[in-house]
Design goal:
The protein is an alpha/beta fold. The chain folds into two domains: 184 residues, Rossmann fold (3-Layer(aba) Sandwich), CATH 3.40.50; 164 residues, 3-Layer(aba) Sandwich (Rossmann fold). It contains 15 helices and 13 strands. Strand 2, helix 2 and strand 3 form a beta-alpha-beta unit. Helix 1 crosses helix 7 and helix 9 runs parallel beside helix 10. The radius of gyration is 21 Å and the shape is globular.
């Protein structure tokens, strides 16, 4: 079989972490040839210039598309998407991939998928069919599904939803989530090594916090974060570890509030623009739980048998393990959730928690499909379901 050029596009630290093992597997394939395109917050100094982590992992970056985000307004995000289409289109003309791979639901991947559509390039979409009713990612994810040809989903429910969107069942594969794969591929750091590397000292209680703007929130993201910080401020004998938010509309006030909160008590609070996958997963071994509204709290944290406090509606609709505690974005609800998460009864329940996103092996399964499936045409036929609607 002719070598296939597979172009993986990554725009954030989180989604790259999920794709890293898959990229290695593609590199090892005798049939597939990896092309790596980096864009979005990877190229942002405020977000840690995380493209360097990709290079440190030994990958060659074939193309960079800087979205030149000047602020966090909705208008600037829209303009960045436009620049993405133009920059990625030029990239595709030069690299001439046979297929692109995008994962998830971020606006950074909207432009590459649109460009691929116009260039007649096959699109493989990973982690489609999921729901996140509190974020604009919800709409983007379903748009990516409709522009894609191959679909690799994380649960059977998500597979059914992608088919419901009109996709051909034979092109929708449920291999589980890539987050579980990523965990199994890491040789995690021990406690002392992690403390030295990150410059921290664990306390009797340790909480890992990631709070992103809720881009379709009916309330006020800044006020919601204040409520969270109020709840965290009264935790005793605790180390609070923040990972900073994505480059969503409204992320700058979130950065500022967290930085101000740390300055009030820098001995028991710390923030990182990006922990990196190894440090993040290693950290999950030793914290008492995760708090915020990140997808990781639902997709990966259950594999560590740790509790997740999921605040607000950003992840509303996603399948979740019994280790997830949903709460409202107010101090009273968050405090009650923290008390529950730290309770002996809840910790006993964690011992039997299973991650609904699988046991691993998704990357190998995806590569086998990419190597063997016929790519004769980018034409798609809508798969009509036999619905009967009541008038």
């Amino acid at each position: 079989m002719k070598t296939r050029k597979v172009c993986v596009v990554t725009g954030t630290r989180a989604e790259y972490g999920l794709l890293k093992l898959l990229c290695r597997k593609i590199n090892e394939s005798k049939i597939l040839r990896l092309q790596l395109v980096v864009t979005g917050s990877h190229l942002s100094e405020l977000h840690g210039l995380t493209y360097r982590e990709i290079e440190e992992d030994g990958f060659n970056i074939d193309w960079k598309v800087d979205l030149k985000l000047e602020n966090d307004s909705a208008s600037e995000i829209a303009n960045a998407t436009s620049r993405s289409i133009k920059g990625i289109s030029e990239c595709f003309e030069a690299l001439t991939p046979d297929m692109i791979i995008v994962l998830g639901d971020r606006y950074e991947l909207f432009g590459p998928t649109i460009a691929a559509l116009f260039h007649g390039i096959v699109v493989s979409h990973i982690h489609g069919g999921e729901l996140t009713e509190g974020a604009i990612d919800e709409s983007i994810r379903h748009c990516l599904t409709k522009m894609s040809h191959l679909h690799f989903v994380a649960t059977e429910e998500y597979r059914k939803r992608v088919i419901q969107l009109g996709e051909q069942p034979q092109n929708v594969f449920n291999f589980g989530g890539l987050g579980v794969d990523a965990i199994h591929s890491c040789r995690l750091l021990d406690k002392r090594s992690l403390e030295r590397r990150m410059g921290i000292r664990f306390q009797p209680k340790n909480l890992l916090v990631t709070f992103h703007p809720e881009t379709l929130a009916e309330g006020d993201t800044v006020e919601d974060l204040r409520q969270l910080l109020n709840a965290l401020s009264i935790q005793q004998d605790s180390l609070v570890i923040f990972t900073m938010p994505n480059a969503d509309p409204g992320y700058k006030p979130v950065f500022q509030l967290i930085n101000d909160f740390i300055l009030e008590n820098s001995t028991s609070r710390v923030a990182f623009s990006s922990l990196g996958q190894l440090q993040y997963f290693s950290m999950l071994q030793f914290v008492d739980g995760v708090i915020g509204n990140s997808s990781s709290g639902l997709l990966e944290v259950p594999s560590f048998k740790k509790g997740t406090i999921n605040i607000g509606d950003r992840q509303k609709g996603r399948i979740r393990a019994q280790s997830v505690i949903d709460c409202e974005p107010d101090s009273k609800s968050i405090l009650a959730a923290i008390e529950q998460m730290l309770s002996h009864k809840f910790k006993q329940r964690l011992e039997t928690v299973e991650n609904p996103y699988g046991l691993g092996g998704a990357s190998d399964s995806i590569v086998r499909v990419l190597e063997s499936i016929q790519l004769n045409s980018v034409r798609k036929k809508f798969n009509d379901l036999d619905f009967r609607f009541e008038s």
